[in-house]
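Q: Entry one of two.
A:
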Amino acid sequence: MKKKVHLFVVFVMMFSMIFALSGCGNKRSVTDEMADIEETGGSIGENGNERQESGESGVAALEVPNERWKETIASEGEHPVEVNISVKPEVPESGTLKIVELTPVSFDAEGRKMLMNQLCDADNIRVLDDNNLPKWYLEEEIAEYEKDISGSAGEGGSIDPAVTEILQRDKAQLDSAPEEGAAPTDYEQERYTGTIDGITYMFSFHDNDHLSFSAPSKKDEIALLGKPELTEDCHLERNFGLPEKNECSMSQEEAVLKAAGYLSNWGYSEFTLWNVKPLSFYAADTSTGGDMTWSEGYEMIFVRALDDVLVNGDPYGDSRVEAITLALTDKGIFSGSFRNLYQMNEVIAEEPRLLGFEEVKKSFASVLAKHAGADEASESISLDKMELTYFPVADHEAGYTLLPAWKLYKKNVADEIESIFIINAIDGSYIFPAKDIDIP
């Protein structure tokens, strides 16, 4: 069956990595290493860096300078590059950071049931079963396929036989199709419909760690917008040109408060706003015969905060980072997503001793010399952002551990990360590189 494409699209980049936080001897877990740090108050990190031995711990002992760190480092990899660093390090206002064990929340059958019942009125949740699709779904899919076929024929293009076959199958099922899907019994399916504030949405689960939802049809999408001239025949898509004027009656602050209210009602009040931007659209072939570009509403990204410190300041920097996205218009929620949720477990250390800033610089210099430029086409990299944050690290035994981490990176004018390097803020070990990350 052809997959329906809706306006809200989330690209999830999956990275499979194993991290070794012990430099010698038998393989040990992150939990073991952190227990040693708490007990001894300091040791030698895997990059040969000595951890702090002073009486102070946490952010207060870092001695982060007020001036910019400027340095040029030549990498030693297969494709050597010159790395130009010019950053003003950002540290959280919180005086201490923690180390916490994490358990990923799986969107298996039980996880899907839990999340759907958090978001929706339980009495209105229905299954979208490919073998027994409801009439409204088939009618829209038939209209969509017929439009595609008509367009291809009008342009002299060929028609995919598979499309014709699916269209015939949908038409054959239409007369006997139920008006709506059945209530779920086991939550083994990946697609559902449900209502939030009386509005119906289609919910799609992906890879047991990601849920996205949006209006189930073009007609329903248009109903959430304030443009009466839009018709179901128009071509409608998200636009990232971001027109200056926002036609939403809500201010940005009001939209953020409303979104935060949804999260609180759903049980995710510990998430905090990371980014907000206008919700913009492009429509062609409207009833007026012209094209339209406009902003109407806001799209907000929320990430977990632990004592007001964000868990990785960029939710697109790694597929393991939690993020909740909500797009709102005056009519209600336009779309949303949940991905990579974690359960916070035991606090391993309340105030781990962090590397002093001079040692942090040495660790980054070592990491960049070894790893920068491995996939770079250019002869130089410029890094202009640096933050102390939290980052979830894979543990051989315990699953994941949330650690204080330094992030050094570069963003382009489109707010896309071009290069990023992350090190453990406790021992300076290399955690994560990522390049050319696509941001939806």
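Q: Entry two of two.
A:
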Amino acid sequence: MKENSTIPVLAQPAFSLALPIQQAQQAADAVRKLLAEAAAANTTRSYSSALRYWAG
């Protein structure tokens, strides 16, 4: 029988999955870092507007 080496890679234990609260915190951190990179006021407004649009 042929050994299938992809099964262990695809099987993720439940404890390794990110919890929704962790994902939300990571997203908030990413947004803060993105906004910190914006130097000009119009760039900050543009990024904020785009994030509001994509959020929902």
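A: Comment on entry two: The mean pLDDT is 74. The longest helix spans residues 20-37.
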